[in-house]
Amino acid sequence: MDPSQVKLPPMKNLTVDNITENTIRINSLCQDPRTKYVLERLVTHLHDFARETRLSTAEWMTGIKFLTEVGQITTDVRQEFILLSDVLGLSILVDSIDHPKPPGSTEGTVLGPFHTHEAEELAYGGSMSHDPKGEPLLVVCTLRDMQGNPIEGVKIDIWETDSSGHYDVQYAGRDGPDGRCVLRSDNSGVFWFNAITPVPYPIPHDGPVGQLLKKLHRHPYRPSHMHFMFEKEGFDHLITALYLRNDPYETSDAVFGVKDSLVVDLGKAGPEYAKKYNVSEDHALLKYDFVLVSDEETSELRARNSKIALDKLGRKVKIVNGLPVPELD
Ligand code: BEZ
Ligand code: FE
């Protein structure tokens, strides 16, 4: 671009005190209001972070080296950036902002790096786990909307570790997917399957994120859980998990995913379920009723929450599609 065509005030002699406004000014040529807003806030917070911490060059180089290592260890099956976002509490924060849940609906939680798109569809009664050392578990669930109507035909992705706390993708020589499946809810909103009782496990901690946790004197463990993802047109995509009560890590999850509404007690099948689902009476049983929120209910709540949050911060912005953008583009 011809420099004489750029309509900007001259930018030189920049200082600790005026670098921020000038960086924002040059970025403001951006034509997309949302990108412009996100970059404006990012630059503001990054610069304030450097000013407030009096960041040294050596410290910033340590940060750059760390981020480089996070990138270098990342592959198709090892997503270190997601781990970093998880241990910094950013993943759960973004999920709570983007997928707000009204009272009575099922809360979301962290996705983590172990969801894949290769799970096979399971027939009702099939088992998603082939680990002979796992404790067999029958899982029986219902799926309803906020008005209490059953939801049919929802695609449900479910995944969990084996009894040693590893996901299938963590084994180099695996034959194919295991510990994961896809199901569809039936016309009464019910789905059920066989699995194994989840166990606690450490998130991958042999890389830069593990080093960071060690430096912070934090453990890498997640409490026993099973992941669920629900998709159906017209409903807000729900990524969640169920956690077992009284797990040793229930209140110290390395990635901040546990919410009381997602903590469950395992029971026993008893005579009724034993007969209906063809298991023994003392077979372990997990029962849960999920409630999905419609896209419309979610958009309204997201926009309302954005307005309240931005008013609280005293920011003069417009809310477009539930998201803040500059008031004057
Ligand atoms: C998981 O639960 O699979 C998970 C979540 C966050 C980081 C690592 C693993
Ligand atoms: Fe997990």
From TrEMBL:
- Give the source's domain of life in one word: Eukaryota
Gene Ontology terms: biological process = catechol-containing compound metabolic process
- Catechol dioxygenase N-terminal domain location, by residue? 32-105
Q: Which cofactor does it need?
A: Fe(3+)
Q: Which Gene3D superfamilies match?
A: Aromatic compound dioxygenase
* UniProt KW Metal-binding keyword: yes
Segments forming a coiled coil? none
InterPro entries to which the protein is assigned, alphabetical: 1_2-HQD/HQD, Catechol_dOase_N, Intradiol_dOase_C, Intradiol_dOase_core, Intradiol_RC_Dioxygenase
The alphabetical list of record keywords is: Dioxygenase, Iron, Metal-binding, Oxidoreductase
UniProt GO molecular function:
catechol 1,2-dioxygenase activity; ferric iron binding
Q: Which residues form the Intradiol ring-cleavage dioxygenases domain?
A: 129-292
Stored Pfam families: Dioxygenase_C, Dioxygenase_N
Q: Which family does it belong to?
A: Belongs to the intradiol ring-cleavage dioxygenase family.
Kindly provide the name given to this protein in its UniProt entry.
Answer: Catechol dioxygenase
What organism is the protein native to? Aspergillus nanangensis
Q: What is the lineage of its organism?
A: Eukaryota, Fungi, Dikarya, Ascomycota, Pezizomycotina
